[in-house]
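Project outcomes to date are best conveyed with an example. Our students and postdoctoral researchers have been running inverse folding experiments weekly, and each run begins with a structure described purely in C-alpha cells. The record below, which covers 228 residues, was selected by the lab manager from last quarter's runs and is presented without edits.
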C-alpha cells in the first residue's frame, strides 16, 4: 500500500512535469488537498508530507476538523455548495471560498468576515455546461457579478472556478478548462487583481494544468476513495 506521503510526492512530481510540459512557470500550480470525509489524522499525515492547503465541502464536518488542527499552520479552502445559513461559519473558519455564484452569498460572507482576519479570498463558480441542476453562473453574467463582488471590502475576488461534467479523454477534458481560461482573460481588464483559475480534480488534473489552472483541488488521488 502506498502512503499519503508517497502520493504527495508522486502528485508534486506530476504537477512539476506538467508545468514544464505546458510552459508554465515552476510552482504556478497550487495543490489543494480536498479532505472531505477523511479525518483529521489524514490531514496531519498530508501536512507532515509537506502540504498546507486543504479543502472541505461540508461545513458541519469541516469546522470541528479545522478546530482540532488549529495547532498546524494550514490554509482552508471551502469548495462545496454554499448554503446561506452556513455563510457565518465559512467566513470565520476559511481563508478561501471557491464556489460563489450569487451576490447575496458574497454580501453575507462580506458582512460576516471577522474584523481580525484578512479579506476572504474567493472565486466565482462558472457553469460551462448550461445545466440548470449545476451550480455556477453563465459566462455572460460574469462582468456584472465580478464587479459587484470586487467592490465588497471584506472579500478579495481572485478568479474563477469550475467543476465540469466528467469527460473521457484528455482533449475532451481540456475544452471546458480552455473556456474558463478565456472567461478569466476577458474579465481581467475589467476587474483588477484576478490571478486564479481553480480547476482540475483527480480525474482531470492534467487537462486543467495544460489550460492554465493555478489551483487544482485533489481528493481521491491523495486520500483514496471517500468514506461515506
Ligand atoms: C470533492 C471535490 C474535489 C475533489 O475531487 P476528487 O475527484 O476526489 O479529486 C474537488 N473539487 C470539488 C468542488 C469537490 O467537491
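After processing, the design step wrote out the following sequence:
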Amino acid at each position: 500500500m502506498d502512503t499519503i506521503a508517497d502520493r504527495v510526492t508522486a502528485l508534486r512530481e506530476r504537477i512539476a512535469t506538467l508545468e514544464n510540459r505546458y510552459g508554465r512557470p515552476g510552482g504556478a500550480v497550487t495543490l489543494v488537498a480536498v479532505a472531505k470525509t477523511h479525518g483529521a489524522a489524514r490531514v496531519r499525515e498530508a501536512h507532515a508530507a509537506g502540504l498546507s492547503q486543504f479543502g472541505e465541502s461540508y461545513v458541519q464536518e469541516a469546522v470541528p476538523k479545522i478546530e482540532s488542527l488549529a495547532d498546524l499552520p494550514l490554509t482552508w479552502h471551502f469548495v462545496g455548495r454554499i448554503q446561506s445559513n452556513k455563510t457565518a461559519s465559512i467566513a470565520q473558519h476559511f481563508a478561501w471560498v471557491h464556489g460563489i455564484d450569487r451576490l447575496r452569498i458574497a454580501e453575507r460572507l462580506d458582512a460576516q468576515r471577522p474584523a481580525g482576519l484578512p479579506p476572504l479570498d474567493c472565486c466565482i463558480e462558472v457553469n460551462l455546461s448550461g445545466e440548470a441542476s449545476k451550480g455556477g453562473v453563465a459566462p455572460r453574467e460574469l462582468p456584472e457579478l465580478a464587479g459587484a463582488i470586487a467592490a465588497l471590502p471584506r472579500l478579495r475576488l481572485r478568479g474563477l472556478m469550475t467543476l465540469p461534467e466528467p469527460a473521457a479523454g484528455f482533449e475532451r477534458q481540456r475544452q471546458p478548462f480552455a473556456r474558463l481560461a478565456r472567461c478569466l482573460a476577458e474579465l481581467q481588464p475589467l476587474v483588477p487583481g484576478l490571478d486564479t483559475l481553480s480547476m482540475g480534480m483527480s480525474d482531470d488534473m492534467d487537462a486543467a494544468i495544460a489550460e492554465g489552472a493555478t489551483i487544482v483541488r485533489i481528493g481521491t488521488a491523495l486520500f483514496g476513495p471517500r468514506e461515506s
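The first helix runs from residue 4 to 21. The mean pLDDT is 96. The training component of this project remains on track.
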